[in-house]
Design a protein that fits this description.
Blueprint lengths: L44 E3 L14 E5 L3 H12 L3 E5 L11 E5 L5 E5 L5 E2 L3 H7 L9 E3 L5 E3 L4 E2 L10 H9 L5 H6 L2 H4 L9 H6 L4 H8 L3 H13 L10 H13 L7 E4 L3 H15 L3 E3 L6 E4 L5 E5 L2 E5 L1 E4 L3 H9 L7 H8 L7 E8 L10 E5 L6 E4 L5 H10 L2 E7 L8 H15 L8 E9 L23 E3 L12 H19 L7 E3 L7 H12 L1
Parallel strand pairs: 2-3, 2-15, 3-11, 8-17, 15-21
Antiparallel strand pairs: 1-22, 4-5, 6-10, 7-10, 8-9, 12-13, 13-14, 16-19, 16-20, 17-18, 18-19
Helix pairs in contact: 1-15, 2-15, 7-9
Length: about 550
């Protein structure tokens, strides 16, 4: 999802070849270091496609997909595979949305791919992985990281490598192994307040917890302070938001997806190469082979109803009319296009879109250093108590491009994230503080020379504020020819972040395909309710008290 994509000239063709085909694994590793193609959780939920023909018959309907991020690519792929004439419109020069990448020339004359930063491809991202398997059946473009360590400035270190993956053993194992939980702190907890985490169901969780902030919810439970900062705040900040503004329902849903409701565990995979080369260029070639048109560098101005029930998409250099349109944009892009389209949908629907909010700005700082980070450092480290610093990535540990640069130079490539950054004293001060905190966490970097550095400030992630769930747009809109997709969308399925984007894209395609009697994309999610019947019973009893 990017902000404001649209139709226009044929745009830049995205170059790149498909990844080599590998066999799909059934769990863990594919035998050659590749990521898992299919999950291991036997209780995962399969949503079959609605019955219908395998492809459209007669003249192919034409669908415009506005936005070339994960959601737009998922919608375009499902439609094009079934014979729909698809035109994908993207504002930027490359695909991927928030996972896009672009070339930069470094001070030493070498060329690198810059991006908006690290993303974890969790094993629970079933529908995103299904999209990527179109060009890489074994998901060999992804590689697993051995651990997901969390470090607190007080010296505590949590790890998920040895935590059992199946609930409730996952929760019990984490508490037993984590230094942030001690008996004194456990005795002060309110287990009754934590019961909603044990049986999360969508949309019921929003009915129960959307009126509470994540910070207040955690305060009610009285988690030990160290555990709250080290483990739980890390979850909430993955939404790029301050826990005081984030809906507790989103936090509870996160716990269900990644920890208490799924046996896939909290370990994850990362791309072996930068996002364009590993993921989007192969998928663009796949779409071209299916007959889809990709127009990049083409912003959309507006989308208006035509007299025959179709939709007219207007860009700076041309206008095109489509049988249907999918708006797969970020919050600002969706607000911009809908705001410039006064006849689209209904006044109430447009007002809801106009009221959407974005999360606070975040910073991604990448440094090319002239010496290596210590060999024992993890490839990825979540941090708490280090001011603005939320995590550290040592890219050369897994990304081929960064690794090749370090082989040539003897250096290292380090990336730092600051979510919901505090910018009262200026953005330069945030950058300086991030670098200082890196030196504090990894002291060997203090004496390193900086060959080059890049700093990306962004503020385009959706905010899921307290009480905001009901007003969020759904995939379907008042106009049956118009769909909305993206991680901002309300799906009533247990999905979040990149997986919500992919799932909503497929849902948008399925809704349109059903209009033409065509079978859509089957979907898969984590279980739709808590895993333990005993714990679910306790939750029901508590709700009646």
């Amino acid at each position: 999802m990017n902000s404001a994509a649209g139709p226009g000239g044929r745009g830049a063709r995205v170059n790149g070849g498909a990844q080599g085909r590998t066999r799909a694994g059934s769990g863990g590793d594919d035998g050659r270091g590749g990521a898992v193609a299919h999950g291991r959780d036997r209780r995962s939920r399969v949503l079959p496609a609605r019955p219908g023909r395998s492809r459209v018959e007669g003249p192919a309907p034409h669908v415009g997909v506005v936005g070339g991020g994960i959601a737009g690519l998922a919608a375009a792929t499902a439609l094009a595979e079934r014979g729909v004439d698809v035109t994908l419109y993207e504002r930027d020069y490359g695909l991927g949305g928030r996972l896009a990448g672009w070339p930069v020339e470094l001070a030493d004359g070498s060329v690198a791919t810059m991006s908006r930063g690290f993303h974890a491809f969790f094993r629970q991202y079933y529908n995103l992985r299904a999209l990527l398997r179109r060009t890489d059946p074994g998901l060999h473009a992804l590689t697993p990281l051995p651990d997901y360590p969390l470090r607190h400035s007080g010296g505590m270190l949590d790890s998920f490598a040895r935590v059992p993956r199946t609930p409730p053993l996952s929760a019990l194992g984490f508490v037993a192994l984590s230094p942030s939980f001690d008996w004194r702190g456990l005795l002060r907890m309110d287990p009754g307040a934590a019961l909603p985490l044990l049986d999360v169901r969508v949309p019921r969780v929003y009915e129960r917890l959307d009126s509470v902030s994540a910070a207040d919810f955690l305060a009610r439970i009285r988690f030990p302070e160290a555990a709250q900062h080290l483990a739980f705040e890390v979850f909430s900040r993955s939404f790029f938001a301050d826990p005081r503004e984030l809906s507790a329902a989103e936090l509870a849903l996160m716990f269900h997806i990644y920890f208490l409701g799924s046996s896939e565990g909290l370990l994850f995979d990362v791309p072996r190469e930068p996002f364009p080369q590993a993921l989007w260029e192969p998928l663009a070639e796949y779409l071209h082979r299916l007959g889809a048109t990709i127009r990049t560098a083409t912003p959309v101005d507006s989308v208006e109803p035509a007299r025959d029930g179709r939709l007219t998409v207007t860009a700076p250099d041309r206008t095109a009319t489509h049988d249907a349109v999918v708006l797969a944009l970020d919050t600002a892009g969706l607000k911009q296009v809908v705001g410039a389209s006064p006849a689209l949908g209904t006044a109430e629907w447009r007002a809801r879109v106009a009221a959407l909010r974005t999360a606070p700005p975040f910073l991604v700082s990448r440094f090319w250093l002239d010496r290596p980070v210590a060999a024992e450092r993890p490839g990825f480290l979540g941090t708490s108590g280090y001011g603005d610093l939320d995590n550290i990535s040592v890219l050369d540990r897994w990304e081929g491009e960064a690794h090749r640069w370090t082989l040539r130079t003897g250096g290292s490539v380090v990336e730092l994230h600051a979510y919901a950054a505090r910018t009262e004293d200026g953005r330069a001060a945030v950058r300086d503080r991030l670098l200082e905190q890196l030196h504090r966490v990894y002291p060997e970097t203090r004496g390193a020379g900086i060959v080059d550095e890049r700093h990306e400030w962004r503020d385009d992630c959706p905010l899921f504020p307290v009480g905001g769930h009901e007003a969020r747009p759904t995939v379907r809109t008042p106009d049956p020819a118009l769909m909305v997709a993206g991680d901002l969308v309300r799906t009533d399925l247990p999905v979040a972040l990149m997986e919500r984007a992919a799932t909503s894209g497929f849902l948008a395609a399925n809704a349109l395909l059903a209009r033409w009697g065509v079978r859509g994309e089957p979907l898969r999610t984590v279980p739709a309710k808590g895993r333990s019947a005993l714990l679910r019973g306790l939750v029901r009893l508590a709700a009646h008290d």
